[in-house]
Specification:
This protein is mainly beta and 139 residues long. The protein is 7% helix and 42% strand. The protein has a five-stranded mixed β-barrel with strand order 1-3-4-6-5. Strand 2 and strand 3 form a beta hairpin.
Length: 139
């Protein structure tokens, strides 16, 4: 099984391009994902993970995601390689986004043209509810 779930902040605005063969939209961006544990006396570390989103997911990402925004991504890891013009081989590992979600809470007084930002995605999944109270947590 190849499934990745990430939550992090965009390090830059998504970059959009189109494939040469069938003009399919591809959005590329990078997520800064905090590591779970912090060593004593050190600052929290983050991993910078490259993500690509194709077609409708890419359109959603390119329209609504901006640098610094916290987002959730569900997808798969993919590796690929190619030879450049000088004959050098290049390898890349990236996450292919299959679902993209807003994870920021709406800032006070900020107007939004896309409604409630938490839990909405390109697939318009509304199956979970946000409980703002920590009283019911089992830990």
């Amino acid at each position: 099984m190849n499934k990745v779930i990430l939550m992090g902040r965009l390090t830059r605005d998504p970059e959009v391009r189109y494939t040469q063969t069938n003009n399919t939209l591809v959005a590329s961006f990078s997520l800064a994902v905090n590591r779970r544990f912090v060593r004593q006396g050190e600052e929290r570390q983050a991993d910078f993970i490259n993500v690509v989103a194709w077609s409708k997911t890419g359109e959603f990402v390119s329209k609504y995601f901006k640098k610094g925004q916290q987002v959730g991504i569900v997808g798969r890891i993919q590796t690929r390689n190619w030879d450049d013009e000088q004959g050098q081989k290049h390898y890349v590992t990236e996450v292919v986004a299959e679902e993209a979600y807003f994870a920021d809470s709406k800032r006070d007084g900020e107007a939004s043209d896309f409604g409630n930002t938490f839990g909405e995605s390109v697939t318009q999944s509304t199956e979970f509810q946000v409980n703002s109270s920590d009283d019911d947590l089992p830990f």
